[in-house]
Design goal:
Oligomer: single chain
Number of domains: 3
Largest sheet: 4 strands, mixed
Number of helices: 13
Mean pLDDT: 87
Order of helices and strands: HHHHHHHHHHHEHEEEH
Distance between the termini: 35 Å
Number of strands: 4
Strand content: 5-15%
Helix content: 55-70%
Amino acid sequence: MSSAAEDRLSALDSSLDSILASGSGSEQGQAGSDLFAVVDALDAQPALRRALTDPGTPEEARAGIARSLFEGKIAPAAVELLVAAVRFRWSGGRTFTVALERQAVRAQLRSIGSAGLEETEDELFRFGRLVDSDGALRSTLSDRSAPLGRRQDLVSELLSGKANDATIALARRAVAARQRTFANTIAGYVSLAAAERSRLLATVRVARPLEPGQLERLQQALSRQAGREISVQVIVDAELLGGIRVELGDEVIEGTVAGRLDQARRLFE
């Protein structure tokens, strides 16, 4: 992602933070739901998407189109965020809708409150791992020839009684991933949940489960290295044989037995 694109996303993040600052949890949740509805409408109507992102149309005119189409039909907070978004210059309609969906997810997560964020992050991560490890389930959820509602209902059935309402709602939404896979979409939601807690997500792969003390020491060490608080999600993978592999943002720390053996094999190829 270019620095200009990162700046736009950061600015839109700040806009959402400001718009939702005084809203209640229910108002924040409604804003998120309405933004998802806007994204769906833009996906279904390319001409509307082009009208809101056309760089040849003055900024104020684009904002006016957004207000005239959506004001009174969606929550005021969602309207304000949409207007803020159309004022930016986007590289394309797809980039624009991805940015809007990011804000919809953030609004939904914000509505949970700090007490439920960690639980939702963990539940989304675990469900994503479940789907990724089950080829039949993964194929079923990604089968675009099957009705979307039926696939979303399957997610609800799998999570009913095992996850909170926010987790189920976001997991259902992830089934509708437009271009990305379900696994990638869920992973993005998990990262956003960690960010809402002002934490950076670290995915740790180990051959055997970590003891609580080991996990705590690892979290502290990664936090010192990153210079900020870390949210650790652990994947147990017996194929690693031993050691640990850490994915922290774009950085990968490889310290597994399997990794070292693979490096050794490559020396003799």
